[in-house]
Structure formats: C-alpha cells, structure tokens
Specification:
eight-stranded mixed β-sheet; alpha+beta; about 800 residues
C-alpha cells in the first residue's frame, strides 16, 4: 500500500527534489552515494567504488513495459543480472518521473509520479536525525547501506538484511536469535516478474546448521541436509566439497553464536562473480559467470529432481522427471495458462475441460439418484506417488471405495490399496514413482471425457459384453488366436503396455528371422514389424536357463524401467526353450556403427557426441541409483548404445547380465575382442560394483572423443598406434588437448568441453574403484556443475596398451596391477 506524504507540502517538496536533480545532472560513473540533494532518477545509475555493481531503474526482459523497479545488478557482466530489487511488490510506471532519495526522516524512499512513497527502507533513525545526516551508499559487494553521513561505517540499514532471491558473497543468510527474524530468500514469480513467488529459503528453526525450502509459506519440501564444517558441504550437496579444498577461491561456512546463526559465502578473488538463487522453479541454483562463454554456469542445483519441488506442476497434473515436458495435465484437464505452460512455468496447474455434472440435492453433499451423478466416471493413472490431503473412509473392496467417492459430489479422486483414500481438494504434487512401486489413483471425470478407461462398474459391464461378443464372434476369436498377444497381469504403466508373444508370433513378425540387424554377447537381433506397423528389434537370447516363471518376473522388472536414455522393452516371448525380447527400434542403429566410420563426411559432430556421452551417463545413473534394485550393466561398450532418429542415446541390454546368470568366465568368453572395456576387478576376482560400469563408460568415452577405437589393428600383426587413452592422459597433463584430435575433428569442437571430457574419462578408468566417480557425478562434471580436477595417469592403461601386442598375457598383467 502506498503512503501519501503530506508534511511540508508534498507538491512543493517533490518539485524541489526534481529541480535539484535536474540541476545536478547525471551522476554517471562518478558516484556511489544518494543524498537528499543527490537523488536518483530516470536513466541515472549508481556505480560502486571498484565498479563491480550498479544500481538504477530496471525493467525485466520480456516483462510489461509499464513496470519498473529499483534494482542492483552486476556492472561488469554483459548479461544484465539483478541481485536485489527494492520495490518488487510495487513497480512504478515511469522512471523519469520517479525518484529515489533520502526522506525528511532520514530513510531511503522511492517516490512515484503521484508524490507517494512506493518503497522505504522503513527503519528507525536516531531521534533528531534528518535527511541531511544520512546517506545511501552502494558498496562493491553489492550491498546498499543507509548510514550516517559523518561516518558511513555506522550502518543503520542494509539491503543484505533484506534479500530478494539471491545470496551474494559476504551476505549473511540466517536468523537473529534475539529478534527471531530470518532474512529469507524468496523466488521471483516467474522469469519476467520479480514480485514474490511461492518458493523461499529460510533457516530451519528446529535443526542447527540447516536451512529449508518452503512452498507458499506453509510447508517444507526439501533440505540440503546439515552443513559439515569439515567438508565445507551440505549432506545433500556433496558437490560443494570442491569449494572447501585448500587454497580454493571460494568457500562456504556456518557461524553460530549467542546473537545469530548464519551461512556465509566467501570469494577470495574479486574478479569472480558468483551467486546462489532460489529460482522460480523452486530450485536453488549456484552460478558463476564465465567470461569466455558470456553466460552464467551452474555449479550446483538442488533439488536436482525438479519433481521433488512441491507443486512444481500445479494442481491436477503429474510430474515425471524423465518426460519432456516434465509436467502433464491429467486426462480430462488442460493447462490453466497455456502461455505460462509453453514457457516452462507449470505452477499454475491444470483445469477441467468439462465441469462435473454431479449436482447436490437439498444443499447436502450426497447426490440423489436423479441428479445425474452416474454420469461421472473415473480415469485411472498408474504407478504414482499419491498427493497429500486424502481422507480415509471405511471400504472393504475397491468397488466400495469407488462408490463412496461417487456418492459425494465433493470427492474428486480415490485410491485403494487395502485402505480407501478419498480426495476432496485440488490434487497437488502427483508424481511418477521412479521405483515402480507406486499406487493407482482414480480421477473423477464426466463420462464424456472417458475414452479408453471406464469405472470399475463400467469395466464389469464391459467384461460381460466382451464375453458375449467372444462367444458369438468366432471370426474375431480366430484373429485373436493368430495374433496370440496378451497383456501380462500387473504390468500396466502410464505410457506402456508390455506384451507377451508366442514363438510363432515372433517368426511372423521377423519373417522367420530373415532381416538380421546385428549380434552381440547376449544373442542376435532381427528387425520385425508388428501388425499395427510398429517397427521393433527382436533379440533372440542365447544361453538362458531360467524357468518361465522366473523369466517373466525378470521381464516385469525390466519392462517397468523407464528413462529417456534407456531402450524401452515392448514385449517378450517365453515359450518352451525360446526366450526373445522385443525392443523399440532405433533408426540410427548402434553407436559403434555411427562412431567408427572412415569417411570424414559421416563424422558425428562434437555437439552430438558430447550429448551422447551425457545421455549415456544419465541412463547409467538411473540404473545405478533410481531403480528399486540397483542394476549393474556389466557390458558397456558402443555396440550396446543405440541411437534414435535424433541421435538420442539409449542404453540397451541392461538387466540381462543378471538374467543370464553371467559369471566371470562367461564375461571373458562373450567379450572376446572387447577386453579393453573391462574393469580390473573382473580380472582380479574382487566384487563387481557399479564402478565396473564407470570404468567401461570411461573407456568408451575415450572413443567418443576420438571418433576412433582405442586400439587400432592393422593387418594381422596387431601393430598399434599410440594408445589413445594414454595420449589423453599425457596431453591433459601438458594442457594441450587440441593436439588429441585430427584436423577434421577440430572444426566444431568446444575445447573446454573436450578438456572436461578427457579428464572425466581418466577419472573413470582409475585402477582403484574408490577413486572413480559415480555415474551421477559424471553427469554433473560433464554438464559443468562440478569442477573437474587433474587426474593421475592410471597404470592400468599402460598394461592395456601392452596387451594389444601380447594378448595371451592380458590376464596375468592385469591381475598384477
């Protein structure tokens, strides 16, 4: 609310201020101070001593033309980046007719055209003080302070105590124990509107050395965990340990005393611009300015899973972190604001396409049989984490639970898992369950909105009709027998139905296995076409000795694994001794086929190769960390990476090592000729962990970088050129990664990415598996979120290079490492 000033005649005072302003001219680059006689208006700006920060009137890019704000931004960064905004709730319409000045009571105020106070520092100034005794100074830290003119170090008020969405180095983020006041950070509403959003950061009032992510000032949805002074990192952000290394230019610390507790970010190099922000997405992002890229680079983001942000997708939608886009409206709903939705802001949620026809009788909540409530039905969404706010009612069956919801017009959804839960408010925070152990939720919709799924009562009727139809329709039965397809009970998923095929079906689909696509360590692969025209890849497994029940159980597990960078299982065949798998078809085949081409015209561009490397790492991260049971692939190599029409990589053959009961001797047999991808622990006989996949990935990353096999064979004498992984280790030590690539590969390479990829590859192939990063860390390093340090040269690489000359002694040499 604006406060009108009447003392001293507001009109005369305002005109006096504007007259003084016009007489003094523009304080361009010459001042960092605001006084009663030296205010700020129009295109003028303050610049801090040292030139690091500037302050003036600011308008967000893409925002309304009539909304202006007083902001502080980086003066030496080409991309205008505000770090603090004064009047974020009360923008002014015209900076030329507005003024930021020292008021009669000594406070810093923003006056608009109508001579009203739009914003004020609103602090207590010593009794008797006036506008002649206080000044506002912009410091080179980005802190705006109100102080006494006689001693500017005697601070009365500072912007660092009132942050918006950003924490800067030197700013205390915490709480005053004496007053109980916390200086919370609050997100922008969206990227064009700096008004307070629904996400904020605040100190945890119950646990020391910890802060919370808050949604809508009402609930906590994430914490990075307790801060560890020894590591200089939070329990949930291990990547911050890079900041605590000796001689690091920046550090993070926690201070706790009788008066206050706070976190403090410190940067020891004034040329480094670093900040942390609570984003409109609800994530906290740490960013550092990269002058060579002319952009901000992330060094951490939490929570990394955007679906962990409460209500990230708003009401009546569900969030799937591996989907693009990540938010989807539930069936029967559409985005509340299509414009915001298309720009990536999903928090507005979704609204019904058609209103529910259910009408109340006599003002109560129970509809009469004539009110039309039977026009309502339920649409099921499977394998989700249920939203909050349910109420439990008595029901012994799922049918009773549906009826309980159906008979109350206020009931919007139900779920039954032995207990009947009903929802009466907006469905918020509905998420895909990555562990594939989620529940089913039934969403209430008008019958007209139901296309493919009916209520339980409807399904019962449909089943009866179906039985009659099957009895009468002999020809239809014949077609069904020919196709011999059936869904496996319990394998319903949001976007996939796993199908079981007979062996005769597989022969028909593949034209009796005539179109062979290739072969691998698990069996041969053939091209097939389903009845609806869908092209699939059929893998005929070799050496499977599991019984049908166990095999089906394994298919259930593999079939429920979904990720953008993992190949999707369409169906399978388990009949007699035959075991076959049907996968989605990848138009560009294997990475092996695309990578090792001799023609320079067919070379994959660097950007594509780098994204393939990141995609494969993300797929392996999902297998290692996101599945209900950790899956170790055991056979990472270019032949097992498939590429779709857009060259998006898909890891194939995951889970098959366990399926085939693969032991050490089998690995050595099936990987003959690709010994270069095996981790040392396969030879030494020690336990195999996810770090074996990390090693194989590292060896493959060398090949992605070079566009060549690690070991090139010439003729029959097995002579080899310089072993590329060793060459990489040497060149990154010399700081000359450009020399690694042939001239035809250098034309489009980002050399910063090249250096990063080379160092990551070297870390992945360390002999000691504890020295290798996790695949999750590999993703963060390749994306530039974690700093990559100089790796040592692994001795294993030298042994591997020598093995090319004397392959018969490989096992002995590797065992000795």
């Amino acid at each position: 609310m604006e406060t009108t000033i009447s003392a001293l005649g507001p009109g005369a005072l305002y005109m006096l201020v504007m007259l003084l302003l016009s007489l003094q001219g523009s304080p361009t680059g010459a001042t960092d101070v605001i006084t009663a006689t030296q205010p700020l208006s129009g295109q003028q700006k303050l610049v801090s001593q040292g030139g690091k920060f500037a302050m003036g009137f600011y308008q967000p890019s893409g925002g309304p033309q009539d909304k202006w704000y007083i902001a502080i931004w980086y003066n030496k960064v080409q991309k205008v980046t505000p770090v603090w905004i004064a009047n974020r709730e009360t923008p002014i319409s015209n900076p030329d007719s507005s003024v930021l000045t020292i008021w009669t009571d000594g406070n810093l105020v923003l006056l608009n055209k109508s001579r009203s106070i739009v914003w004020s520092s609103n602090t207590s100034v010593t009794a008797g003080a006036s506008n002649t005794t206080t000044v506002a100074v912009l410091l080179n830290t980005g802190n705006l302070v109100l102080a006494y003119a006689s001693n500017t170090s005697n601070m009365i008020w500072q912007s660092f105590d009132h942050p918006t969405d950003t924490q800067l180095p030197g700013m205390k983020f915490g709480r005053n124990k004496l007053t109980g006041v916390s200086n919370r950070q609050v997100s922008w509403r969206d990227h064009t509107d700096p008004s307070p959003g629904i996400f904020s950061l605040v100190m945890d009032p119950n646990i020391t050395a910890q802060y919370l992510f808050i949604w809508n000032n009402s609930r906590s949805y994430f914490t990075p965990g307790k801060f560890n002074p020894q590591t200089g990192a939070f329990a949930g952000i291990p990547s911050m340990t890079v900041m605590s290394r000796p001689n690091s230019v920046y550090s993070y610390e926690y201070v706790d005393n009788d008066k206050e507790e706070y976190f403090l970010l410190t940067v020891n190099d004034d040329n480094i611009f670093l900040r942390t922000v609570i984003d409109p997405s609800g994530q906290q992002k740490g960013m550092v300015w990269m002058e060579e890229k002319q952009d901000w680079m992330l060094y951490f983001v939490e929570p990394s899973d955007l679906c962990s942000v409460y209500s990230a997708c708003g009401a009546f939608s569900w969030c799937a972190v591996d989907s693009v886009p990540m938010c989807s409206c539930l069936w029967g709903f559409s985005p509340q604001s299509p414009t915001e939705w298309s720009s990536g802001n999903y928090t507005g949620g979704c609204t019904r396409n058609v209103a529910l026809p259910c009408r109340l009788s006599g003002g109560g909540s129970t509809p009469s049989m004539s009110s039309g409530y039977e026009e309502d039905r339920f649409y099921v969404t499977n394998n989700v984490r249920l939203p909050d706010g349910s109420q439990v009612v008595q029901a012994t069956t799922i049918s009773d639970c549906e009826v309980a919801c159906l008979h109350n017009c206020s009931c919007l959804a139900y779920s039954y898992n032995g207990t009947c839960s009903l929802w009466y408010n907006d469905l918020v925070n509905l998420q895909q369950d990555l562990d594939n152990r989620g529940d089913n939720i039934f969403i209430r919709l008008p019958a007209s909105e139901i296309r493919h799924t009916k209520s339980i009562r409807g399904r019962t009727i449909g089943l009866a009709i179906g039985v009659s139809a099957l009895t009468l329709g002999v020809s239809l039965i014949g077609v069904l027998c020919l196709l011999r397809r059936r869904r496996i009970k319990g394998l319903h998923n949001i976007d996939m139905n796993l199908m079981a095929f007979g062996y005769r079906d597989m022969k028909l689909i593949t034209k009796n296995f005539t179109d062979k696509l290739g072969g691998g360590s698990f069996g041969s692969v053939f091209k097939g076409v389903l009845q609806d025209g869908t092209v699939v890849a059929i893998k005929r497994l070799e050496g499977v000795h599991q019984g049908e029940k166990q095999f089906r159980a394994e298919m259930s597990t593999i079939g429920n694994i979904h990720h953008l960078n993992l190949i999707r299982l369409v169906g399978f065949c388990s009949e007699g001794e035959h075991r076959l798998l049907a996968y989605e078809y990848m138009a560009h085949g294997s990475l092996d086929g695309c990578l090792f081409k001799t023609s320079s015209d067919d070379l994959l561009p660097w950007k594509t190769r780098y994204q393939i490397a990141i995609g494969v790492a993300k797929g392996l991260t999902y297998l290692h960390d996101k599945c209900r049971d950790c899956i170790i692939h055991c056979d990472i190599k270019p032949q097992n990476i498939l590429l779709d029409t857009s060259f998006v990589p898909k890891v194939s053959d995951f889970g098959l090592a366990k399926l085939l009961g693969r032991d050490f001797s089998r690995v050595m047999t099936t990987m003959r000729g690709t010994i270069g991808y095996l981790a040392p622990e396969w030879i030494s006989g020690t336990a195999i962990t996810t770090k074996a996949d990390v090693f194989s990935y590292g060896m493959m990353l060398f090949e992605i970088i070079s566009h060549k096999r690690n070991i090139d064979e010439h003729g029959g004498d097995r002579r080899v050129d310089k072993f590329f992984p060793i060459l990489v280790a040497e060149k990154i030590q010399e700081g000359n990664v450009q020399a690694l690539l042939d001239s035809d590969l250098r034309r489009d390479v980002d050399f910063e990415e090249l250096k990063r990829a080379c160092m990551v590859a070297c870390w992945c192939v360390q002999e000691d598996e504890s020295s290798r990063p996790t695949m999750g860390a590999v993703v963060q390093m390749l994306e530039g979120l974690i700093e990559v340090t100089m790796p040592p040269v692994p001795r294993y690489l030298k042994v591997l290079a020598e093995s090319a000359y004397q392959p018969s002694t490989v096992s002995d040499k590797l065992a000795a490492v």
